[in-house]
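Good morning,

Attaching, inline, the backbone tokens for the sequence recovery test we're adding to the shared suite. The designed sequence is right after.
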């Protein structure tokens, strides 16, 4: 049976790199993104693209209905879609905080639950990989919603792994550090900001999207068949660093 892999936020960056790695592993990749160019991105990998706002539960449900009707049940789900909205903690509007939670955490729950229901019904030994962050463990005060959401993803990963283990469905997460994506563009453009970021990264460089994609593909594969409930941090050593020089 052909393995169907659905990657959210798949039009570019880490999401597209995950799709590339999974396609090379033999999966048929389905990309979902709020951007219209998701269809062109998917076509490059021989897959299909669907426009979907992953912060909207109704759209998420409709996405899975369409994917299952067009291609069959999802075997691998990569919950990658996410956003960060910066602002001062004391003045940040509640709407900004809620937008981040709706996409980064609630959307992950809705998609995981919907995918798992079909996996259980079809007796699919599936794999779900969530995109967390080192900010599940360390905090930046200017991105309160992002940090809160990624900490929630870490715990949701554990909860889902325990709930779904009896059905032979594995759930893991990946926690990137500083990765060379559009989200890091402002840091890359500022030599001082980049130097500060690298001072906290023992490998002294930003990671690439593909370095995240390869870890996601590993967790989705049978090579990780006894791994569930884990968050694998891909951060160049940052979380282990005790001081900077």
């Amino acid at each position: 049976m052909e393995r169907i892999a659905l990657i959210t936020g798949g039009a570019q960056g880490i999401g597209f790199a995950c799709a590339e790695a999974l396609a090379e592993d033999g999966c048929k990749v389905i990309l979902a993104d709020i951007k219209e160019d998701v269809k062109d991105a998917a076509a490059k990998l021989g897959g299909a693209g669907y426009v979907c706002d992953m912060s909207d539960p109704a759209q998420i449900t409709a996405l899975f209905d369409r994917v299952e009707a067009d291609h069959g049940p999802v075997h691998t789900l990569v919950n990658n879609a996410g956003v960060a909205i910066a602002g001062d903690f004391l003045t940040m509007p509640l709407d900004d905080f809620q937008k981040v939670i709706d996409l980064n955490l609630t959307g992950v729950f809705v998609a995981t639950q919907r995918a798992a229901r079909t996996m259980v019904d079809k007796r699919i030994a599936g794999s779900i990989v969530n995109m967390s962050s080192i900010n599940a463990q360390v905090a930046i005060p200017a991105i309160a919603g992002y940090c809160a959401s990624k900490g929630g993803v870490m715990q949701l990963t554990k909860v889902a792994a325990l709930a779904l283990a009896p059905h032979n469905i594995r759930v893991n997460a990946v926690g990137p550090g500083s990765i060379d994506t559009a989200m890091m563009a402002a840091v890359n453009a500022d030599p001082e900001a980049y130097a500060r970021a690298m001072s906290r990264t023992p490998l002294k460089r930003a990671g690439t999207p593909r370095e995240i994609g390869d870890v996601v593909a590993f967790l989705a594969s049978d090579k990780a068949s006894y791994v569930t409930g884990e968050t694998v941090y891909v951060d160049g050593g940052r979380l282990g660093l005790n001081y900077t020089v």
